[in-house]
Design brief:
- This protein has six helices and six strands.
- The chain is α/β, with parallel strands linked by helices and 159 residues long.
- It has one domain: Uracil-DNA Glycosylase, subunit E, CATH 3.40.470.10.
- A six-stranded mixed beta sheet has the order 1-3-2-4-6-5, sandwiched between helices.
- A hairpin with a 5-residue loop joins strand 5 and strand 6.
- Helix 3 crosses helix 4.
- The longest helix has 15 residues.
Length: 159
């Protein structure tokens, strides 16, 4: 069973993490479980509307071929048409860069800094949220990079 993206299908913010965890595989929904709960708390703290968020994984199936997974990701990006892509973790950044989205520039491995991904989409690289839940230094590193989303949100006018 695939792990489907969750959130608004026309969201301003597109969250991308590398692979689904056990709870996501069981429920078939991205950002289900601990990561989803932590993410909702972070969005509340940043005053970001959770209805403006769409979250997905690079890989949709446990044993999925990477070329097939890139095709799914490209379709999701084309459908959602976000203003900001938040890439969580180095594997997700490398995967997104290898997908060759039209007009896209490669996102650099610089956490917590807005980058131009395409002429209409900005990118933000953060640590992997799943790897940031258990240790305080990892939580702090994730938060320091992720809080840029709140600054971006407060400065981005709604359409």
């Amino acid at each position: 069973m695939p792990v489907l993206g969750s959130g608004h299908p026309l969201a301003d913010v597109f969250l991308l993490k590398p692979t689904p965890k056990a709870a996501e595989l069981q429920e078939g929904v991205a950002f289900y479980g601990r990561a989803g709960n932590a993410l909702l708390k972070s969005l509340q703290r940043l005053h970001v509307d959770p209805m403006a968020i769409y979250g997905t994984n690079c890989v949709k199936f446990a044993d999925e071929d990477e070329d097939e997974a890139r095709g799914f990701l490209l379709r999701e990006l084309h459908i959602v048409q976000p203003k900001l892509v938040v890439v969580m973790g180095e594997p997700a950044r490398e995967f997104l860069n290898s997908a060759h989205f039209p007009l896209a520039r490669e996102l650099a491995a610089v956490e917590g800094e807005l980058q131009e991904f395409t002429p209409t989409i900005q990118g933000l690289v953060t640590p992997d949220i799943d790897e940031s839940l258990d240790e305080q230094p990892a939580k702090t590193a994730f938060w320091n990079a992720f809080k840029v989303l709140g600054e971006w949100w407060s400065e981005t006018p709604p359409y």
